[in-house]
Amino acid sequence: MIFPAIDLKAGQSVRLYQGDYSQTTLINADPVTQARQINAAGLSHLHLVDLDGAKSGQPENSATVAAIRAAFKGMIELGGGIRSYELAAHYLTLGVDRLIIGSAALTNPTLVRQLLTDFGGERIVIGIDGQNGQVAINGWLEQSQTKMSALMATMMASGATNFIVTDVARDGTMRGPNVELLSQLHAKLPAANLVASGGIRDVADLAALQAIGIRDAIIGKALYEGSVTLQELAEADAC
Q: I want to staple 166 with a disulfide (CB 3.0 to 4.6 A). Which of 71, 78, 173, 198 is the partner?
């Protein structure tokens, strides 16, 4: 599955450079229209991030998420600041298909276990973000000492099956995905479904990921830089 990404900040679609909130590029002032364009190209999966929520832990772009949900036909996954049961339930009631839990997986594992118990591993996805194999939290503003593989193993024991793995150092850089990291994690935890995120430039990068057994990927900056088109992604997604 290929997930074009829409990152939301103040109700608009933007891109950050390596998670730096001070380096913001406006992609589309109307993310609802952007979501419709993704649909129209033949893609039926969408990755949303509430960047404001990732910092505050509150649903800062909830109205925009609801508008995108009403406009987009297909699966929507959402991440960014989901650190309470109430907020998770709110978004699921809104019609979001699956939620991405990031920081809370490390800081509040009891909450994540409860979410996995109540909603299952198909609706609760764990976001593993980091650098040098170690987890970053709170909108990538803090670096922990926990290994990505260790957090994944803990979450799998609680029922998680899907993990979005983002190398913060690659995100928004157009340097290609960290195939070495993903390959190591895949080898260490073969039962986990890994979703590659960060640095993917084109369909050749998607092929490189498939070669190591990773079929799911999130595409952000490459679309807006023009190194890959929605049509190319739709064709790759159909293979």
A: 198
